[in-house]
Amino acid sequence: MEKMSGIHSEKITVTHTELNEDEEPPSKPLYINQEELLKEYFQSKRERDKTSLSQRSTSFLRQYFPETSEKDWNNWHWQLRNSVTSIRQLSGFLNLSDNEIRPNQTINDTLPIRITPYYLSLLDKDNPDHPLRRSVIPVFDEFLSSPGEASDPLSEGHDSPVSNIVHRYPDRVLFLVTGFCSTYCRYCTRSHMVAKDKCHIGKKAWEPGLQYIEQNTSIRDVLISGGDPLTMTDENIEYLLSRLRAIKHVEIIRIGTKVPVVLPQRINRSLVNILKKYHPLFLSIHFTHPEEITLEVKEACAMLADSGIPLGSQTVLLRTINDNVEVMKKLMHELLKIRVRPYYLYQCDPILGSAHFRTPIEKGLEIINGLRGFTSGYAVPQYVIDAPGGGGKIPLLPDYYQGREDEFVLLRNYEGKTFRYPDFT
Ligand code: SF4
Fold first, then answer.
1. Catalytic site includes residue 172
2. Structure confidence at residue 10 as a pLDDT band (50, 70, 90)
């Protein structure tokens, strides 16, 4: 397992006594600053061998996987192999309620289920209203279609010049490189494409997308998404990043992922060593609720941030999950503490069977109103609607601009007081 401890935030003093505790140091001669080199070597060894985990995960592991070692639990391949993929399996972990789908009831035509054991360990076993549980457990409401819903509400198919590329804005593209996620969110905008039979897309199928990017010199920004790109092998990630980085006009590469939140074990030294070779590289991490920010997630984000990767968050506004100011403020504060800059708050897209997740737009405005001015500007994400039909992201702001009075503009501040700004030009 290649998982790290919280050492990034601490100043470590290494003594020779400590250095001798684990194993023989490397045999090659150490000419320059021997102490520093030894420190680096053993620090990296500790990261590789790290097997500690949060109290919650420890109890869950002992209860449900008593034969499994902490080392295996901390291995992302083990997490994927042991993910829950059926309602029958799920019923062994949770007491399913009447509105949740139970064994012997079919979920055909809806998004398949997949949850890592790690994320499952965060769910409340008995409470169907638990926010994290609601985001990943299928319920009967998913079968109810409402007006305005569609399987591909953003019409990404219409803006796809070649397979796996969505080219909607002038200078950037979305590159959908896999249809697989380690954990499926029930409100997923791309539920029409993720988790399908051929969801592992792979190198050959990326070729038209890569050639399209190579041939279009206006593309300076590539957002790699899916599915979840960080569920791919190191080799595939490296291949993809190296191909993109070799294109001169591609200035920045972004990766959209929920892996640090649902499979933090994946953020290991070998992955980070690959990612940091392809700067400027940004990560947009999908967070939903402050309860997701566990010890494991903090360590994963520390490792990414320490490698110089700017981290931003994307959060979908979800009814009774995170739709109030206090929960959202707590989430944004916790994100800043782990060096993730709140970036977008999305209005939930109207995919089929999503009415139970969606809030009125006023709710999103109320939340922004409750953040702006009441906390640091860094903690205020941009609230956007991805316009149905392919209109792109449209920002929404509470009504701070209140019109004009002669040569003055009337502005409302965060406390609701009106101020006049002289605008004589
Ligand atoms: S992680 Fe993203 S792509 Fe995967 S199911 Fe969740 S919302 Fe969809």
1. yes
2. very low
* CB atoms inside a 10 Å sphere around CB 218: 10
CA distance 162 to 153: 19
Place of tokens 């009125």: 360
Q: Kindly report the number of other CB atoms within 10 A of residue 254's CB atom.
A: 20
**190 among known catalytic residues:** yes
**Cα–Cα distance for residue pair 160/157, rounded to 1 Å:** 5
How far is CA 278 from its chain centroid?
19
All domains in the chain, ordered by first residue: 6-49 (no CATH), 66-143 (no CATH), 156-395 (3.20.20.70)
348 catalytic, yes or no?
Answer: no
d(CA 407, CA 390): 38
Strand partners, 408: 405, 422
| Ligand 1 binding pocket includes 345 (Cβ within 6 Å) | no
Rounded to the nearest angstrom, the distance between the alpha carbon of 228 and the centre of ligand 1 is: 7
Q: pTM to 2 decimals?
A: 0.87
For residue range 13-52, list pLDDT tens digits in order.
Answer: 333 333 333 344 445 444 456 666 556 555 555 454 455 6
CA of 196 to the centre of ligand 1 (A): 13
Q: What Rg do the C-alpha atoms of the chain give, in angstroms?
A: 23
Indicate if ligand 1 lies below 6 Å from the C-beta of 194. Answer: yes
Measured between alpha carbons, how far is 309 from 339 in angstroms, rounded to an integer?
Answer: 10
Q: Which two tokens stand for residue 288?
A: 């939903």
- Spatial distance between the Cα atoms of 127 and 70, rounded to a whole number of angstroms: 27
